[in-house]
Inverse folding.
């Protein structure tokens, strides 16, 4: 993860954060270096897509494009180690208890959007609706982009500030923001808040997600380090 970036090779967070800091400070990046950065960041787009904006979201995708899902036909499947596997429509989700949170969205690359209003189904309520097997120890999330995955321990997933979000700031979650449904994990960095949520699976252990396979921390608490020298602070 600390090697010089070459085509097709992911680069470590310290390198990314260092380059983002240069960009934010207004330091010009040479053409050859920019080409290297763009290739290294191929899973999320070029450097122009990840430099912090003034108080706004940046849009990430780990694929070249994500097919849009209509709210009328979208489903979130919940299965694995549960009593009652089920596919939830948007109407089904709306009939479950609704939770509203006013929380920041913090990206591991440094930018933050304060006081976003998130509305949806708290994950504990969704898990209660299907019944969790005593054998379940973790929850795995799958994006309908076909690539992006994430996991939480069952204890983490049962926090009331973890939700299947269906609205942001009083409006349906847009496609660019990961709609119709996305995961929102308030106490962790944004890469844990999986976009384009299509599947939830209860498992007997935590399975590393897309970003963890590239060297990011499995437990991504905002502001905390787990001892790694490249952990965000």
């Amino acid at each position: 993860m600390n090697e010089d970036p070459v085509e097709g090779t992911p680069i470590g967070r310290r390198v990314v954060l260092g380059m983002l800091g240069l960009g934010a400070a207004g330091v010009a990046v040479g053409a050859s270096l920019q080409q290297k950065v763009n290739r290294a960041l191929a899973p999320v787009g070029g450097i122009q897509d990840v430099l912090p904006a003034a108080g706004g979201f940046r849009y990430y995708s780990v694929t070249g494009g994500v097919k849009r899902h209509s709210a009328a036909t979208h489903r979130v499947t919940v299965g694995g180690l549960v009593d009652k596997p089920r596919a939830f429509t948007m109407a089904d989700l709306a009939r479950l208890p609704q939770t509203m949170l006013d929380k920041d969205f913090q990206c591991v690359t440094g930018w933050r959007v304060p006081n976003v209003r998130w509305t949806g189904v708290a994950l504990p309520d969704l898990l209660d609706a299907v019944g969790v097997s005593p054998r379940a120890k973790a929850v795995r999330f799958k994006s309908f982009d076909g690539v992006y995955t994430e996991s939480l321990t069952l204890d983490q997933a049962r926090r009331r500030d973890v939700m299947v979000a269906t609205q942001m700031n009083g409006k349906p979650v847009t496609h660019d923001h990961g709609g119709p449904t996305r995961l929102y994990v308030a106490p962790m960095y944004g890469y844990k808040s999986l976009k384009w949520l299509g599947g939830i699976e209860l498992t007997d252990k935590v399975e590393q997600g897309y970003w963890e396979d590239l060297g990011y921390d499995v437990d991504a608490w905002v502001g905390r380090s787990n001892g790694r020298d490249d952990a965000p602070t």
Summary: The chain has two domains: 13-49, 75-213. The helical segments are 13-24, 31-40, 90-95, 123-130, 154-157, 210-213. Confidence is low (pLDDT under 50) at residues 1-55, 225-233. The CA atoms of residues 143 and 197 lie 5 Å apart.
